[in-house]
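thread: overnight batch results

M.L. [08:02]
morning all. the overnight job finished for the chain we discussed friday. pasting input first so we're all looking at the same thing
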Amino acid sequence: MSKIAAALIAGLFATSAFAAQTAAPATHAEVKVAKAEAKEAKADAKADAKVEKKAADANGDVAVAKADAAKTKAKAHKKTAKAQAEATAAEKTEAAK
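M.L. [08:03]
and the structure it wrote out:
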């Protein structure tokens, strides 16, 4: 979901960059300036999208790491509970003898 949001944000930046362009510059120098400004805006939008993507990926990595940690903890807890149950059962059988 975060990647979709990052893509939408990048699209909005790109759209705003192209919408901000002036209509038909008159001279060759103005055309070059307009193209340079458009390229700069596009590069800025790409950079922002990369930052958003990295942030989304980092959040995703954190979520995966937390899920893995929870799974490992649950597995360890299950093993401990099983060992305690076996120890209790062993004590009861030895006490019964």
